[in-house]
Amino acid sequence: MAKRRALQESLDTFAYGGTAAAAKITQLFGDSKDFDETPYAGACDLVFVDGSHARSYVESDSRKALRMASPGGYVVWHDYAGPRHERGVYDALNELARELPLRHVEGTMLVAYRKPG
Q: Residue ranges of the domains in the chain?
């Protein structure tokens, strides 16, 4: 049911559609807390986290994304825009930045991390 709702709310096409990169992209829909990331562990060059803004989801999504990232791979989070915008994203990523060298991409709502190779 959640997958169907996510698909219904999504765009019909995506920016990468029809490009050479499309065959390399796996876009996942559903409730990320129910998602089993183990088949992707250490296998993803880029994990883009753009999900629920609730802190518990950001924390869960972050743990999973970090496990999925390959050595030298990147995790990029969306919606980091300060405490007045999306508090859960802001608080969770600031907490994670105490453990990992996260970097806010100046002029954007993105935060990036490169997993050591």
A: 1-25, 31-114
Q: What is the DSSP string of 13-82?
A: S-TTTTSGGGGG-----S-GGG---GGGTT-EEEEEE----SHHHHHHHHHHHHHHEEEEEEEEE-----
On average, the pLDDT of the chain sits at: 89
Tell me, which fold does domain 31-114 have in CATH?
A: Rossmann fold (3.40.50)
pLDDT score of 10 more than 60: no
User: Which has the closest alpha carbon to 47: 114, 117, 97, 116?
Assistant: 114
8 A C-beta contact, residue 69 and residue 102? no
Whole-prediction pTM: 0.83
